[in-house]
């Protein structure tokens, strides 16, 4: 089964905008991969076709978490590592809204690691776009959870001594129901992955290889191109065991698989909460009926 699809050419059901980007100029460093992420999400939203007032982008803290300021949608710039907690609450309160969370690898996997774990396992119906540059950029170049073992940074001048977190492996083993990886050097592929994530009902996690050329110049556009491979055409993303094998192989051979890693369909967090509400409603009705029967004999 092929792991990618062609971007749709048909017009969306609702009149589309020419852009979802706002009037504020993006203020990332020259060469930052996040510019490509911004452009690709804009393209995906145009194809997705929902009006801007039905979309909310939630972010944490960091370079990539400036995202809501550059989009003409509703936005929520939350605190460090808490984007997924805020996005979960919003989706439960307003299930009809399309919720997108954005952040960097430090925001997601260090201070936000606990929320990352629970959002994945709960299968919250939202799309999480992680911009992975393997460094802390906003605070000027410290080692991040995704930094390679032995990497020298301002906070690790003799090299990192902790093994890195693989965001794709983390999302896969924690329970996300749509997992893809893409890179800023291929904006068409990135827009396609974003659209597929938006269309999926459940937790959609998309890891974007987005270089920070200011503080991690060794992992630039050319590095990610040289160390990436497309997901094999015969990979079946609905096969969870195959997805595990694919990611483990990529870890052993030190490359980034680009494409849809895994997809499955399960009840969302809102579905399960709805089931509890139904049980409570039924129990309340039964209690009232029992009380009425008791009154007949008292």
Write a structural description:
This protein has 298 residues and is of the alpha/beta class. The chain has two domains: 34-266, Thiamin diphosphate (ThDP)-binding fold, Pyr/PP domains (Rossmann fold, 3-Layer(aba) Sandwich), CATH 3.40.50; 268-298. It is built from nine helices and eight strands. The protein has helices at residues 34-48, 83-93, 105-109, 113-122, 167-174, 187-199, 221-226, 240-253, 269-297, and strands at 55-59, 74-77, 98-104, 127-132, 178-183, 204-209, 228-230, 256-263. It has an eight-stranded mixed beta sheet, with helices on both faces. β7 (228-230), α8 and β8 (256-263) form a beta-alpha-beta unit. α4 (113-122) crosses α5 (167-174). It is globular, with a radius of gyration of 21 Å. The model is unreliable at 1-13 (pLDDT under 50).
Oligomer: single chain
Largest sheet: 8 strands, mixed
Rounded to the nearest angstrom, the distance between the terminal CA atoms is 68 Å
> What's the helical proportion of residues?
25-40%
Number of domains: 2
Q: Strands of the biggest beta sheet: in what spatial order?
A: 2-1-3-4-6-5-8-7
Number of strands: 8
Total number of helical segments?
9
- Proportion of beta-strand residues: 15-25%
Helix and strand composition category: alpha/beta
Radius of gyration: 21 Å
Shape call = globular
- SSE ordering: HEEHEHHEHEHEHEHEH
Low-pLDDT ranges: 1-13
CATH superfamily of the largest domain: Thiamin diphosphate (ThDP)-binding fold, Pyr/PP domains
Q: What is CATH's topology name of the largest domain?
A: Rossmann fold
- The second-level CATH architecture of the largest domain is 3-Layer(aba) Sandwich
Average residue pLDDT = 90
What is the CATH first-level class name of the largest domain?
Alpha Beta
